[in-house]
Design a protein that fits this description.
The complex is a heterodimer of chains A (about 260) and B (about 120).
Chain A (H helix, E strand, L loop, with lengths): L1 H13 L1 H24 L5 H20 L12 H6 L2 H10 L6 H6 L2 H24 L5 H12 L3 H9 L3 H29 L4 H11 L2 H11 L4 H31 L1
Helix pairs in contact in A: 2-3, 3-10, 7-8, 7-11, 7-13, 8-9, 8-10, 8-13, 9-10, 9-13, 10-12, 11-12, 11-13, 12-13
Chain B lengths: L1 H25 L8 H19 L4 H12 L1 H10 L3 H6 L1 H26 L1 H6 L1
Helix pairs in contact in B: 1-2, 1-3
The chains are: A mainly alpha (about 260), B mainly alpha (about 120).
């Protein structure tokens, strides 16, 4: 028995990426189960899974005192490979597949205007909060503003311009707070702001931008609106990743040095 | 062949990241400028071109779609690899940055919906 357990541990360490797939898959499954049973889908499964990931990273930090969350445990190093820049960028770029340029152009100027407005507002408000809390360098201010855009724009922008792991983690947390709030608050605020037609949903997706937040928020409001909001929101992360480390970082660097 | 799709996706990302680094060096920044965004534009453009020419077969699409469909678990793994311990010390920043942005964004969504559509709202 003991040798079988030892053999299993050897296999796990030698195949750490496979262990990462298995563990992440299980986490996502549990999260969607909890989302369904405990919150009746109001809190999106992906938000719960990411929250579990962040908690796990916190525990990993306490155990190892390292900087890579739970992946600092040798047996869980595959989590670091799976969540590393290479596979992350590959999967994000792949989500652009299926976005038809023609369909988006049909929504007209208001969709594009919403996208640029939404991204600008996120960087502005997120950056302002960062500044109020004593961050004075352009890299941290841009990264936290990027996190206020989405929890993907944050780390992508942060790694591109060389932000510290702490600031990148903060930007992910800010994006997660945003996603969870959009998911849970949208059904309650929809009536107040007139979010009840496809055009409004495209504006909503473009300004909010957080994919899981927009999809879950609209699904909880009116499932028919989901594709319209998702269509503009799909562009948001890409556009944020394009503008964050470029135009917005350059502007911030000119202001804060 | 499924690998054609994954190969196309990977090529777009490699080219996009290269262009991003090149743009970075042009702008005087030793960093990648929008490599992921450029890769997305390359993927959309090349897929549209291949679809037009009839080269885009369902297995090829599957080789791209698979990676897009596992982006949530990959983001979960990314979250699990972050330095959350350090982030928790500045947790209020994250919560305030997220919450303020959501509040401002909801207000602007309301304004945008009203601007283009004054009729439908005043009727109610």
């Amino acid at each position: 028995m003991t040798s079988a357990t030892q053999q299993f541990l050897v296999v796990l360490e030698k195949n750490s990426l496979l262990l990462a797939f298995a563990l992440t898959g299980t986490t996502v499954w549990v999260s969607y189960f909890l989302s369904d049973k405990l919150t009746r889908g109001r809190l999106h499964g992906s938000a719960i899974a990411i929250f579990i990931g962040l908690v796990t990273a916190y525990i990993g930090g306490i155990i190892t005192n390292g900087k890579q969350g739970i992946s600092d445990l040798p047996v869980l190093s595959g989590i670091g490979l799976m969540g590393g820049a290479m596979l992350r960028d590959l999967s994000i770029v792949a989500t652009a597949f299926g976005v038809r340029a023609e369909e988006f152009s049909k929504s007209g100027m208001i969709g594009a205007l919403s996208l640029f407005t939404g991204i600008t507002v996120s960087f502005l408000v997120g950056g302002l909060v960062a500044y109020c809390f004593g961050y004075r360098d352009a890299i941290s201010i841009t990264t936290l503003g990027a996190g206020a855009a989405t929890y993907i724009v944050g780390p992508v922008t942060g790694s591109a311009i060389g932000a510290s792991s702490e600031v990148i983690a903060l930007s992910v947390a800010a994006g997660l707070v945003k996603a969870i709030m959009v998911m849970t608050l949208t059904p309650f605020i929809a009536k107040l702001i007139g979010l009840n037609n496809p055009r409004a949903a495209m504006i909503f997706g473009g300004i909010m931008g957080t994919n899981s937040g927009v999809m879950a928020g609209l699904a909880a409001t009116d499932p028919k609106l989901v594709p319209y909001g998702a269509m503009t929101a799909t562009f948001y992360t890409g556009l944020g990743c394009l503008l964050g480390p470029s135009v917005i970082f350059i502007v911030n660097r000119a202001i804060f040095g | 062949m499924i690998i054609y799709g994954t190969a196309l996706l990977s090529t777009c990302l490699l080219l996009g990241l290269t262009l991003g680094r090149f743009l970075g060096s042009l702008a005087g920044i030793e960093a990648d400028i929008g490599g992921v965004g450029i890769s997305m534009l390359l993927l959309i453009a090349s897929c549209a071109f291949l679809q037009q020419k009839g080269y885009m077969k369902p297995p090829t699409e599957a080789g791209i779609a698979f990676w897009g469909s596992i982006y949530i678990p990959i983001v979960v793994a990314m979250a699990a690899s972050q330095n959350v311990l350090a982030a928790v010390n500045g947790g209020i920043v994250a919560i305030l940055a997220g919450a303020s942005t959501v509040a401002a964004s909801f207000a602007i969504v309301g304004i945008f919906i009203r601007i283009g559509n004054p009729g439908s709202n005043s009727e109610e």
